Predict the structure.
Amino acid sequence: MSDKLFDIAVIGAGPAGLSAALTARVRNKSVALFEHMDFSPKLQKAHAINNYPGLPMTAGKDLMKQMADHCLSTGPTLIKEKVTNVYSGDTFTLLTPNDTYEAKTLILAIGMSNSTMLAGEKELVGKGVSYCATCDGMLYRDKPVAVIAYTEEGEHEADFLGEICPVVYFIPQYKTEYKPKQPTVQVMKARPQAVLGADEVTGLQTDAGELKVEGIFILRQSDPAETLLPELEMDGPFVKVSREQATNVPGLFAAGDCTGKPWQIARATGEGLVAALNAIGFIDSKK
Amino acid sequence: MSDKLFDIAVIGAGPAGLSAALTARVRNKSVALFEHMDFSPKLQKAHAINNYPGLPMTAGKDLMKQMADHCLSTGPTLIKEKVTNVYSGDTFTLLTPNDTYEAKTLILAIGMSNSTMLAGEKELVGKGVSYCATCDGMLYRDKPVAVIAYTEEGEHEADFLGEICPVVYFIPQYKTEYKPKQPTVQVMKARPQAVLGADEVTGLQTDAGELKVEGIFILRQSDPAETLLPELEMDGPFVKVSREQATNVPGLFAAGDCTGKPWQIARATGEGLVAALNAIGFIDSKK
């Protein structure tokens, strides 16, 4: 466990997260910035953006680099790990596959998940549904499992699970030519529909039939916010926030695409800034 | 009267107004952008700004120029006149000293007034209180008047009023070496305190005594929003808006410093963008 208590943890380093981290650093707060993938793959693919004021007709890749360089020059601690769980108490505890971090406040800037939660998923998180094989895999040793993957990250998870589980159904939701390293991994073409089970997972319903599994690993590019923190109040698929970017959890703020539409850069950077200043206000109010 | 009906009128061309006009133009809407002074004099004075993502350590003057050039390159109609009154109906009617304009929607991006309204001011707007001598001066011909000026603009107004009024008390609230062109204009050092009168203005209370006047002209850098549109719902000194930047008046949106703190550039540009997209949504919903 990292022995440092950060003032502000920011999860996600797209425009909203980078703006939040930047303003927090300019205001001299310690910042842990979690980005387990490349900075906003979605924005990087944008051909040209023409409505971010001051930077006309900029390729998404260039804009993202300018923003990332700018933010990182102010010295946040960049942590290239995926946060899989958050516990809120006097401080926030963030779990990654490798470590544990503590922060006084937390800003979610996790973007918009490209998939909604499955039926039954929320109810069975921790009871067979997991978002991290590296963290939870050992709990499923010798049991049949499924991996629903929206990104290549899922392939590494499947290879690992293949070493310890008798059967691993790998169900990619993206284009891939993945060749499993273990004979126990079966690649399936299917759409997942529902997590089955009452108190614990007993199966996965797909459009290609039902799979008898005891564990289901779901690897999305960005997890729906409520998978991180079940007590977080949502408004449909979005994190519910006030004009101060505050959520229902004291000290927890959210900014950018995860809080709703329009999904636009200037909106995201503005919300990141507001979230950072209100997180600082929250810290100051507790002194 | 201009015979054109604009899709969107934007009042104010600081970061919020420029961002709103930019996004509206990128979305191919016709835009009237009202800016009677230089683009955001407040921002232009900022020595260096380091928390506008993507443009590290930029002088306020340079940042403002980059934003203005970017926005104007997309072709909004820039109107260098001060909007003194707005009427809302099927469309919005905007009055300036010289002309009248019509727009389907309106975005207020007027920044934060550097002075609050005087006691009695709101109640007596149009009954002796005016924000434009060029517009209303003739109504006060042969009557004693006062000019409370927060910018040099007030000096021209006082010179004009001095030609038609027997006495003009000029009360500057800024540093000036103004020499009146008319002997009827008296420069006074005083702080205005209250507009006096029940149904119409009868005087002005100042810390240097009471002045018997029938007209009071108040020239601020930026007028409090409610002087433009009395039905606008406020939250203290700020325009009350939803997360969609909507006000209580249908089709009327507000963005940037006039909607509250923090007074920061990225927040302003984000709100301007959101206001523009929701104004476009409002237009589309009426088709």
